[in-house]
């Protein structure tokens, strides 16, 4: 299973472009299509969407979710990504609790992980 065929449009600042490119290509399995003139790593996604990793050595990650991938089977995606070395976050807060990395939010299931820069990424599935 791969996240390559999920709809996303995102400009993501990263501090180390080579480290980020390795994570997004190898750990997430996204389709790396090359580097542009400013050194950004480019990824093609289904539906004409793309992900651009911007080399920004002084950038700091947002504390909120930066990007979320809609998936059909969140458990299968978590298993696949964990096999690739992705570490999922677990929460035990009054309004946010995960069980086996998954939080049920109304009619949606969600799970979170971070890229090497600490950007929070999410998988979500309509329940």
UniProtKB/TrEMBL annotation:
Gene3D superfamilies in the record: 2,3-Dihydroxybiphenyl 1,2-Dioxygenase, domain 1
Family annotation (SUPFAM superfamilies): Glyoxalase/Bleomycin resistance protein/Dihydroxybiphenyl dioxygenase
Chain coiled-coil ranges: none
The VOC domain, residue ranges: 2-126
Pfam families: Glyoxalase
Protein name: VOC family protein
């Amino acid at each position: 299973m791969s996240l390559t065929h999920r709809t996303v449009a995102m400009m993501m600042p990263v501090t180390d472009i080579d480290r980020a490119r390795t994570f997004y290509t190898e750990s997430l399995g996204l389709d790396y299509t090359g580097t542009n003139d400013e050194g950004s790593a480019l990824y093609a996604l289904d539906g004409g969407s793309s992900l651009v990793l911007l080399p920004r050595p002084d950038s700091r990650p947002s504390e909120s979710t930066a990007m979320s991938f809609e998936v059909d089977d969140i458990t299968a995606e978590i298993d696949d990504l964990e096999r690739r070395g992705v570490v999922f976050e677990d929460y035990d807060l009054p309004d946010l609790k995960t069980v086996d990395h998954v939080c049920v939010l109304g009619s949606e299931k969600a799970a979170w992980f971070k890229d090497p820069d600490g950007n929070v990424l999410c998988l979500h599935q309509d329940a």
